[in-house]
Structure formats: structure tokens, C-alpha cells
Design goal:
transport; Vps54; syntaxin binding; 2% strand; phosphoprotein; 27 helices; 963 residues; VPS54_N; two-stranded antiparallel sheet; mainly alpha; 6 strands
Length: 963
């Protein structure tokens, strides 16, 4: 810190020179210090007459107050007397804020420890640290903030620490980047500028009085009293200097007039002395006032000289103000008052217009009820409801408090309820009359909606009232009409008959009508219900158009061009959903009622034919297509009922054919049967993809004689020798295909039934032939190779038939890639594998019979005369019998395959026998015998021609000899 000359020194005094917690200098100061204070005070009073010396005097007083102790011993003595308490022989230091020392414990110490504490903490320590007066910004911690700080960890010694600066740990706070770093260098310019002015001020203050004295100038007024004493304000008691001197107060009165109540001579002397004292005080005040006036005389004279100028300025200002007021008065009279009057008149005119408009509005509202009745008479319900709503709004907003209209809101509300009830009643009446009116004839003319304008008005009013339940009402009325129509149809059918029947509660007849009557009833009911659905669709379209126009949707109908949109989008979506549900519900109910007529119970006692099922299918398809055209949806109940009837018919059809096939197989003798000509034609039609069963040729309805039966059936140029069961199987399968063509609704079930029938034929024929079941069932003595060959040929015919049947059923599927079609194709592939496996088993059975005989004969054979031996004769004879049995039945290729396997087996057995007998190709007698035997064997095979000639050369037998 820089130091300046004179009494201005910025260096702080030692901290022990003053007491920071006492007001003013202590009473225990040194004598020199205590005596210097009055002198300083008197000097300040005496020299206060000079304004230039006041700052210097104040600085001196502050220095005297701060430097109140001349030595540390005086400061220690002051602390012991004024800032220390003795409690039971222990000294407690009270030098601190709120008489609490921050360094010494509260329980006290001994005299020696107290002396050491004062020297260490309050004398020497304070010399190192600057003493700062405490304020709210000097608080080291805040107890509530410390106790409520959630970021502080738990401390075990938290409640045992003493309150003070060290209660919480001190944390260093970094410098803020928002505040600049202030150093002492920043104050250099200010100190230099102020210090220079302060030095000049002190120099002038010190040299002002001596200079005037040296020049011989005397003060204008002296401050001495007539007795020669100097007038001093300190000589006047303090009671006279109070600003609230109250003589009526006893204390103040006693202080001013002491001894005023005494008697005698002493009282008189006291009075005279008091008078003299008061006169002396008055003289002091007068002298000081005169001195003050003398010192300020120049200012007084300056004020007096400027008073004339001020008065002149006041006169000019008064003249200007008078002129301004006159002009303002003129402006007010000529401009302002007339303008304000114009504004007032305009306000009056505006109020009159408002009253007139209100009266016109009241007149209009007064005509509301007659206008509503007029609108209702023209069936303009929407306009009537809008008028009621608008009138209610006007009454609640613009005509509030009008006494003559106090009953009108309740009347309008009641009228609105009446309109709502009228709309509901009119709509119900219209729905009943429209749905129950007679239907037009079958001339193809589309019926128009009954009173379309009236219906539009009613629906618009209901939509305006947000009464959306009218759609449900119409739906229930339509359902009731459907129920009544079906019941009436049943009654009419029953009335046409002669039998006594009863009716159930639903209106259906109690299962006593014939099948033809049921079909007629269903056809009539579907036609009538379809007309009803078209009528419902017409009303639905009118409702939809009205809702579209009410919601602001664009419509092409001329009737809705001027319609104002009042239906919100939420209500519009609800109406749209209800209308869609209306068509679906009515259509589904019609299907359900018709489905009850075609239920399982209604036809369970009747014998249904394919033509009748076809007729039912035609009726159902026609009705379903009509419903889909009208409603846009496909209903399921009626089709399910039809499918149930078709399923029952298919089950019955299949059970009859399956039973018939079982009887045919059980009575089959497994012998070749003749093929009638109609079977040949049937197979030829099947090969072309047409399954037609003709009983016989006719001319003009008269059957003619058919060609003679053939021995075999020609299939694609190949002869098939068949048993009767195989021919009837083809006929039955053709019946299945023909029925499927006639009744596509049960085509998939018939396809599965065909698979079941073929699987039954396969398994049953296997049991009867391969399993020898025919020995007990048909009374056969044995199962021959011919029987096996006939079964194999029948199975081959089925294999030829399977692709045609599969394609036929696949063509009847509405979607060839559907799941049902895939299942059917898989079933046909499976049955095809079963038939092929059965054919292979039959072939293996034939081979097993022949191979066993060859094995038995070769086991007894030996290469010795006679030639040919009996074994070779038996083998050749068996080969001839086998050929005679299977050659007329099986195709040549299959016969060659069988004989090729038999021939190979013969060579294997012969090779084993030659090896056992040790016969080699050495040209010996045994070799010659074997060659002779083989020559006989080969001649037999060549005679049968069972195998190709190149496979019957002599060289083919060379592999029987061991190399």
C-alpha cells in the first residue's frame, strides 16, 4: 500500500490499539488518553466555524477513537476488566462476537492460562490477521443448511462437535471465471488522484486562518461575550439542545428550573441565579448566531440582491400563465366542448340503435313458436330444431333478464322433446309400413323408396337430435318382418296340404313336410327375402346419403344440395358403422332363417337324391349371390346348412357304395368276367376326362340291343382281363365323379370318400387273395396264380383310373391351391403308392410259389439218366402252367419280368446243386447229362415265348459253371 504525507495514512493500526466490540474508548484507558478526548471535542467545537477544517477534525477524531490504547498492556488490562468473567475461580474470555470467544472453551481456565490465551489469540495472533467487523456475510456456516445437506456423508462425531468456525470442514472455493482478478494495482490511479486533492485540501485548511491574521484582517463579529469569555455551545446544558424539549414533563422542568419550589431567601437567590444563568445561555446563543450570520453575510447579501430579479421573473411568469389560461379557455369554448358534445350524442345514438336492435330481436323471438309449428307442418324437422337451438342461445346470451321471455326457454325445451318423440314415432310408423307393404312382381323393375322426401326429413331430424338409435330400431323391425315372412310362407305351404300339423314358436313346421315341399318353401322364401333385402338396401342408401349430406360430404343427389352440415365426424362414424351393421345383421338373419329350413332335422326323415341336393344348391347359390350383391358380404349360415345336408347325402351315398363293394368282394370268385359294352364306353369316356354313366343306347326313348360282351376291357389299346368286382369298382368311382360334378358343394368330401373306397378295395382284396380269405368267404379251394394275376390286373386298372379321378376332383375345387385340395392330392398319392405296393406283393407271391417249387425239385435232382429227369420235367410243367395262368391276364412285359426272375432263380439253384455234386464243365458223362437237361429246359422256355429270344440263347447258361 502506498503511504501519503500529512495525516492521511492508509496503513492499518495494530489490532491491540482499539477494542472491536466496545462503543467508544474504554473507561480504563490511560490518563493521557482520557484527558485528550475533551480537548479534542472542544477543539472540534471551537474550530467548527471554519468549514474547511471539518474533514480534518473528523479524521483526527476517528484516529483518536481507533488508537485508544498506547500499549498491549493497556489492551490486556481492558480485556480483563470488560471482556472477562470469573466463574468459580476460572476465567472465561468474552472477547468476541456476542461475548463468545472463538478460541477459549466455555468452561474456563486458570489465571495463567487466561493470560497466555490473551497474548496468543488476541494480541499476537491479531497482529498477523486483519480484524474484520462481523456481518451476515461473515458467517462461516449455517446450522440448518449443514443439518439438511444431503450431500454430506454420515459422521459419527457430528453431534459432539462444538458450534463455531470449525464445525464444518472448510473447503476452498475456486475463483469464478465471471469475476475479474482485482489487485492493489487497480487502485493506484484512484489513490494518486484522491491523495493529491487531499493534500491540497489540508494545505489550504492549515494556511487559511494564519494568512488572514497576517494581513491584519479582523473577523466581522467576535465570538466573545460581554464579560470577555468565549462563547461555547458546550457551556449550555444538553437539556436545552434536545429537539423534543417538553417543559410540561416533570423531569425536564426540574432540570431546567432546579430548586424552583423552595421558599425564603434561598429561593430568591436561586431564582436570580437561574435568571442570570439563562441570560448567560441566551447571550451565548445570540453571540453564536451573530457569528454565524456574520460568516454567512455574503450569502445573505447575495440572496437579497437576487430577490429583485426573482420577483421580476415571477411577474413575467404570472403574465405568461394568465395569457395561457385565456387561450386554453378559448380553445375549450370553441373546440373541446363541441367535440365532447358530439361524442356524447354519438354514444346516445349508439345506445338507441342497440335498444332498437334488441327490440327487433325480441320481435323475432316472439315469432318463434308460430314459425316452429309452420316448419313442423311441412315436416322440416331440421329447420325447426335449428330454430329452437338458435332461440335458446339468443335467450341465454342476448336476452338475459327479459321478463316477458321468462317462460320461453322451458317451452322451447318441451317442444324439442315433443319433436324428438314425433320423429321416433314417425320413423317407426314409416318402417312398419315400408317393410310390410306388398312386393312388386318379377318384372325386373327396381322398387323405389316409399315417400323418399318424408324419409329424408325424418332421418335428418333424428340425426340433428343425435338420436342414432333409429338404425337399431329399423334393424329390429326388418328382423321382425323377416320372421313374419318365413312364418307366413310356412303357413301357406301347410295350408296347401291335407295333413294336420302343428307350428313351433319360431314359425317352422314340425318336421312333417315332404322334401319337395321343403324345396318349394325354401325357393319361395329366398325369393321373397331377397326382395326384402333389396328394399332394406334402398332405405339404407337413403340413410347413408342423408348422413353424408348432414356431415358435409359431397353427394350427387339433388335433394341434398342445400343441406347444411350439422353432424360431427364422431357421430358420422357411428352412423356409418351402424348402417354397415344393419345390412350385415339383416342379411345374416335371413340366412339363419333359411338355414333353419335346410337344417339336419328338417330332412332327416326324407330320402334325398342328388337332383334334390343340386336343386337346393342352386337355390342357396342364387340367394347367396343376391345377398352378396345387395349387402356386399357373404353369409355363412345357409351355406353351412346346405353343406351339412350335402355331407349327410355324401355319407349316405358313400355308405351304400362301400357296403355294395364289400358284398361284391366277399362274393367274388376271382375268375375272369366278360366286359359289357357299356363298361367299354364308360372307360373310353373316362380316358377323355368325362365321367358319364349311360345305361344303354336308346332310340326315341326305346332301348336297343347292345353289342355282345367282350372277353377283355381295352384301355388305351391295352387289354385288361378283369374280375366283375373290378368292373363294378370303375362304375362306382364313375358314380362318385358324376355326383361331384352335379354337386360341387360336396366334391371335396366325395373325393375323400373315393380314397376311402379305393383303400377299402385294396385292403379287402389283399385279405381275400394274398391272405387267403377267399377260401373261407367265397368257398375257393385254393388261391392260384390266375387269381393273383386277376387281382394284379384289377389293381393296375385302378392305377390307370387314379390320375383321371384326381384331375376331375381337382377341377371341381374353387381354388386349386387351397388346403383341402392339397390334402386330397396327398391322399391320392398315398393310395397310389399302396396299390403299387400291393401289385408288387402279388408279383412276389407268384415268384415265391414258383421259386419254392424249383428249389424243392432241384434239391432232389442228380446228374444221371434218364434224361430229362423227373425234376426237370416237373419244373418245365410248372413253368407251362404258370404261363397258361398269367399270360392271358398280365401284359407281356410283366410276364417277361416274372419269368426273368424265375429263370435267374433256376440258374442260382442249379449252380448250387452242381457245386454240391462237384460237377464241372469237363466234358465228362455228368457234364453231358447236365447239358441234355438244360437243352430240354431251354426248349420249354422257347416254346412258351415268355422271354425275348435273345435272352434264351444257350450262351446265357454258361454262368452256371464255375470257372
Amino acid at each position: 500500500m502506498a503511504k501519503f504525507s500529512g495525516t492521511f495514512d492508509l496503513k492499518e493500526p495494530p489490532p491491540w490499539q482499539n477494542c472491536c466490540y466496545c462503543n467508544g474508548p474504554p473507561a480504563t484507558s490511560a490518563s493521557s488518553t482520557s484527558t485528550s478526548f475533551p480537548a479534542a471535542a472542544s477543539t472540534s467545537v471551537a474550530t467548527s466555524s471554519n468549514p474547511r477544517q471539518q474533514p480534518q477534525l473528523q479524521i483526527q477524531q476517528q484516529s483518536q477513537q481507533l488508537l485508544s490504547f498506547k500499549s498491549p498492556a493497556d489492551f490486556v488490562r481492558h480485556l480483563r476488566q470488560h471482556h472477562c468473567t470469573v466463574e468459580g475461580g476460572s476465567y472465561v474470555c468474552r472477547y468476541g462476537y456476542n461475548e463468545v470467544c472463538a478460541s477459549l472453551p466455555l468452561d474456563g481456565v486458570s489465571d495463567r492460562d487466561y493470560e497466555m490465551h490473551v497474548n496468543r489469540c488476541h494480541v499476537n495472533q491479531q497482529q498477523k490477521e486483519s480484524q474484520i467487523k462481523w456481518s451476515v456475510f461473515s458467517a462461516a456456516q449455517n446450522l440448518p443448511a449443514v443439518l439438511n445437506d444431503p450431500s454430506r456423508s454420515k459422521q459419527t462425531h457430528f453431534f459432539t462437535k462444538k458450534w463455531g468456525d470449525a464445525f464444518v470442514e472448510h473447503q476452498s472455493i475456486g475463483t469464478s471465471p465471471q469475476l475479474p482478478d482485482i489487485k492493489w494495482d487497480h487502485f493506484d490511479f484512484y489513490l494518486k488522484r484522491i491523495g493529491k486533492r487531499y493534500r491540497v485540501h489540508n494545505r489550504i485548511a492549515k494556511t487559511a486562518l494564519p494568512s488572514s491574521t497576517s494581513q491584519g484582517q479582523q473577523p466581522v463579529v467576535s465570538d466573545r461575550l460581554p464579560n470577555g469569555a468565549i462563547a461555547n455551545l458546550k457551556d449550555i446544558p444538553e437539556v436545552f439542545l434536545k429537539h423534543n424539549l417538553e417543559l410540561h414533563s416533570p423531569a425536564s422542568f426540574a432540570a431546567v428550573f432546579p430548586g424552583i419550589g423552595n421558599d425564603g431567601e434561598q429561593a430568591k437567590q436561586s431564582s436570580r441565579l437561574l435568571q442570570e444563568k439563562l441570560s448567560h445561555y441566551l447571550d451565548i446563543v445570540e453571540v453564536l448566531i451573530a457569528k454565524q450570520v456574520a460568516e454567512k453575510s455574503s450569502a445573505f447579501f447575495h440572496a437579497m440582491t437576487s430577490q429583485d430579479a426573482i420577483m421580476e421573473q415571477m411577474r413575467e411568469a404570472t403574465t405568461l400563465v394568465s395569457r395561457l389560461r385565456s387561450r386554453l379557455k378559448l380553445i375549450d369554448d370553441t373546440i373541446i366542448r363541441e367535440s365532447l358534445q358530439i361524442i356524447s350524442l354519438e354514444r346516445v345514438r349508439s345506445n338507441n340503435n342497440i335498444v332498437l336492435e334488441r327490440l327487433k330481436l325480441m320481435s323475432t323471438v316472439h315469432q318463434t313458436q308460430p314459425m316452429i309449428q309452420l316448419l313442423l307442418s311441412t315436416q322440416d324437422y331440421v329447420a325447426a330444431l335449428d330454430l329452437i337451438s338458435t332461440t335458446q342461445e339468443i335467450l341465454s346470451q342476448e336476452l338475459v333478464g327479459i321478463h316477458c321471455f321468462r317462460h320461453l326457454p322451458s317451452q322451447l325445451t318441451e317442444m324439442e322433446r315433443l319433436i324428438d318423440k314425433m320423429l321416433t314415432t314417425d320413423f317407426e310408423r314409416y318402417s312398419t309400413s315400408d317393410l310390410n307393404r306388398p312386393f312388386a312382381g318379377d318384372n325386373g323393375v327396381v322398387e323405389k323408396v316409399l315417400d323418399e322426401d318424408k324419409l329424408i326429413c325424418i332421418i335428418s331430424g333424428l340425426l340433428r337430435k343425435r338420436n342414432l338409435d333409429f338404425i337399431d330400431t329399423y334393424k329390429q323391425e326388418a328382423i321382425t318382418t323377416v320372421r313374419a315372412i318365413v312364418k307366413q310362407m310356412v303357413i301357406e305351404v301347410i295350408a296347401s296340404g291335407d295333413a294336420e300339423v302343428c307350428l313351433t314358436g319360431a314359425g317352422e313346421e314340425a318336421q312333417s313336410l315332404s322334401l319337395s315341399e321343403w324345396i318349394v318353401l325354401l325357393e319361395t322364401a329366398t325369393v321373397t327375402l331377397l326382395k326384402l333385402l333389396r328394399r332394406v338396401r334402398s332405405v339404407h342408401d337413403v340413410m347413408q346419403q342423408t348422413a353424408d349430406a348432414s356431415a358435409g360430404k359431397i353427394t350427387d343427389d339433388v335433394s341434398f344440395i342445400d343441406t347444411e352440415a350439422f353432424l360431427c365426424m364422431e357421430d358420422y362414424e357411428v352412423v356409418k358403422a351402424k348402417l354397415a351393421n344393419l345390412l350385415q345383421s339383416v342379411c345374416n338373419y335371413c340366412h339363419e332363417r333359411c338355414a333353419n329350413l335346410v337344417s339336419n332335422q328338417s330332412l332327416e326323415k326324407s330320402s334325398v337324391s342328388a337332383d334334390q341336393i343340386a336343386k337346393l344348391t342352386e337355390i342357396v347359390e342364387r340367394f347367396s349371390d343376391g345377398c352378396e350383391e345387395v349387402c356386399g358380404i357373404q353369409s355363412v349360415p345357409l351355406k353351412l346348412a346346405l353343406r351339412a345336408q350335402g355331407t349327410r347325402y355324401a355319407q349316405k351315398f358313400h355308405a351304400e357304395r362301400k357296403s355294395k363293394m364289400a358284398l361284391l368282394l366277399d362274393s367274388e370268385r376271382w375268375k375272369q368276367a366278360e366286359v359289357p359294352a357299356e363298361f367299354q364306353k364308360m372307360v373310353e369316356s373316362i380316358s377323355k376326362g368325362v365321367f358319364v354313366w349311360n345305361k344303354g343306347p336308346e332310340v326315341n326313348g326305346t332301348p336297343i340291343s347292345s353289342p355282345a360282351p367282350q372277353a377283355v376291357l381295352m384301355v388305351d389299346g391295352q387289354p385288361f382281363a378283369l374280375v366283375g368286382a373290378a368292373l363294378l369298382l370303375v362304375q362306382i368311382v364313375s358314380e362318385y365323379c358324376r355326383c361331384a360334378s352335379q354337386l360341387p358343394v360336396i366334391a371335396s368330401q366325395l373325393a375323400r370318400n373315393v380314397i376311402d373306397l379305393l383303400r377299402t378295395f385294396n385292403s379287402r382284396s389283399c385279405q381275400l387273395v394274398l391272405g387267403a380269405g377267399a377260401l373261407h368267404v367265397a368257398g375257393l379251394k385254393t388261391i392260384t396264380s390266375g387269381n393273383l394275376a386277376l387281382v394284379s390286373r384289377a389293381l393296375q386298372l385302378v392305377l390307370w383310373l387314379l390320375p383321371h379321378v384326381k384331375r376331375h376332383f381337382q377341377s371341381l375345387e374353387p381354388n386349386g391351391t387351397s388346403t383341402g385340395s392339397t390334402t386330397i392330392l396327398t391322399g391320392y398319392d398315398s393310395i397310389e403308392k399302396d396299390f403299387a405296393s400291393h401289385i408288387k406283393e402279388i408279383e412276389n407271391k407268384v415268384l415265391a410259389i414258383v421259386c419254392d417249387l424249383v428249389t424243392n425239385q432241384m434239391a432232389n435232382w442228380d446228374a444221371r439218366p434218364p434224361v430229362p429227369s423227373q425234376s426237370f420235367r416237373n419244373i418245365s410243367r410248372q413253368f407251362v402252367k404258370l404261363h397258361e395262368a398269367i399270360a392271358p391276364i398280365l401284359p407281356q412285359k410283366q410276364v417277361a419280368t416274372i419269368y426273368r426272375v424265375v429263370h435267374k432263380n433256376f440258374k442260382d439253384k442249379l449252380r448250387e446243386q452242381l457245386l454240391r455234386n462237384n460237377i464241372t464243365n469237363n466234358g465228362g458223362p455228368q457234364h453231358g447229362t447236365v447239358v441234355s437237361e438244360l437243352t430240354f429246359y431251354m426248349e420249354t422256355l422257347r416254346t412258351l415265348r415268355a422271354m425275348p429270344a435273345e435272352e434264351l440263347r444257350d450262351e446265357t447258361l454258361d454262368d452256371i459253371w464255375l470257372k
